[in-house]
Amino acid sequence: MWRHDELDAHELRQKLKRQEIRFAGNLPLKIYGRLTCGSGKRMLKKNRVFFLNEDKAIAQGFRPCGHCMQQAYKKWKDATI
Q1: In whole angstroms, what separates CA 41 from the centre of its chain?
Q2: What is the CA radius of gyration of the chain?
Q3: How many CB atoms lie within 10 A of CB 33?
Q4: How many helical (H) and strand (E) elements, i.e. helices and strands, does the chain have?
Q5: How far apart are CA 31 and CA 9, in angstroms?
Q6: pLDDT tier at 19 (50, 70, 90 boundaries)?
Q7: Cβ neighbours, 10 Å, residue 51
Q8: What does the pLDDT read at residue 65?
C-alpha cells in the first residue's frame, strides 16, 4: 500500500506506467476501487492510498467500492450479512 501524499508526481507516474498501482482506496473509510472511479477521483489526496491488486487491499481490511465494483461489493455485502 502506498499513500498518495507520500509519492511525488514522477514516482506516481512511474508506478502507474509499470502497473504497480491498479487500485486506489480511501484510508479512513477502508474502501477500495478502480482508478477510474468517479468517487475515488473526488477523494482528498491525504486520504488516498494505492494497491497493486485487490488481494492487497482486502488484506489491509478494505472493502470494494459500491460504485465502480458493484459485483464485488454485492459479494462482499452478502458475505457480511
Answers
A1: 11
A2: 12
A3: 27
A4: 4, 5
A5: 23
A6: very high
A7: 21
A8: 97
- Integer Cα distance of 14 and 47 in angstroms: 21
Task: Give the position of cell 477502508.
Answer: 30
C-alpha cell at 43: 477523494
Residue 40: other Cβ atoms inside 10 A: 20
Name the grid cell of 67: 460504485
Read off the pLDDT of residues 28-55 as tens digits, 9 standing for 90 and up. 999 999 999 998 989 999 999 999 999 9
Burial category of 81 from C-beta neighbours within 10 Å (exposed 0-12, middle 13-18, buried 19 and up) = exposed
Cell, residue 17: 506506467
Grid look-up 470494494 returns 64
Cell numbers of 32, please?
Answer: 477500495
